[in-house]
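Closing statement on the BV8 sub-project.
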Amino acid sequence: MAHAEALATLRERLAAAPRWCVLSGAGMSAESGIATFRDAMSGLWSRFDPMQLASEAGFRADPARVWDWYAERRAGVRAAQPNAGHRALGAYAQRHPGRLTVITQNVDDLHQRAGNTDALRLHGDVLGERWLDRCRRDPGCHPDWALAGSPPHCERCGNLVRPDVVWFGEPLPLAVFDAAQRAVDAAAVLLVVGTSGAVWPAAGLVARAHRAGAWVAILNPEASEVDDEADQCLRGTAATLLPALLD
Ligand SMILES: CC(C)NC(=O)[C@H](Cc1c[nH]c2ccccc12)NC(=O)[C@H](CCCC/N=C(/NCCC(=O)O)S[C@H]1O[C@H](COP(=O)(O)OP(=O)(O)OC[C@H]2O[C@@H](n3cnc4c(N)ncnc43)[C@H](O)[C@@H]2O)[C@@H](O)[C@H]1O)NC(=O)OCc1ccccc1
């Protein structure tokens, strides 16, 4: 089926869908200038070891190094702007409240800034902070009381502040993951945008949606690890395909 025709049929499916979902990954924010993880040359994981930088053990082994790496990524997120893909989803949600659920693996806040303020963040918020360990004092120390530093730390009990993200080996926030599973179970369509489908349990949502009877469409310039679960794959970028489907 020609690209234009495939786009037109998917556009009709979305227009007819009472409820549908987006599952987004790093590719969603690539055109906003935020590096993806696995892209061969520019991907973060081609330059850094994920287990050293995005794991509790890595943080405990070298807190300053991990904190500084996140500080760099936080600055990048603050300097970035939602792209045409984010804006198309935000505008859609304003026009059709309650029909779209955005589920994201991204720790940036670009979906929220574009208007999808209720987006389900499976892997946390890189601009958020929390204590590394449960504070042993009562009442517990508040992260805002932490002494500045790399990372900030509690002057009373030495507790370290960590970014409020889900590191490898850590469970996803249960309430958020449950809501994401319920959303894909009720979806007529799932758009999988800009993810390699390499990270679990997020990637499992694609097969779950398919089993539940949703039409699964993948938007990605390259092949991904979840293409087999798809009813159609549209080769292109988030900032070009989403406006073409929704505006
Ligand atoms: C790597 C993988 C093999 N490992 C895992 O999945 C592990 C282990 C695991 C668990 N189950 C498994 C089953 C099988 C195999 C392995 C596992 N999973 C975990 O550790 C998870 C936690 C996983 C979350 C890790 N945190 C992240 N992020 C936050 C931190 C941070 O960001 O620093 S994951 C991080 O990487 C992932 C990157 O993937 P993508 O977003 O897909 O990005 P990628 O670069 O790979 O791909 C980009 C795509 O975009 C495309 N693209 C590029 N440009 C564009 C463009 N312009 N437009 C559209 N598309 C584009 C490209 O073609 C490409 O396809 C994102 O999820 C991102 O959040 N936790 C857990 O299992 O806990 C257990 C548990 C349970 C109970 C109790 C205790 C423990």
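The two ends are 22 Å apart (CA to CA). With this model delivered, the sub-project is considered complete and its resources will be redirected to Aim 3.
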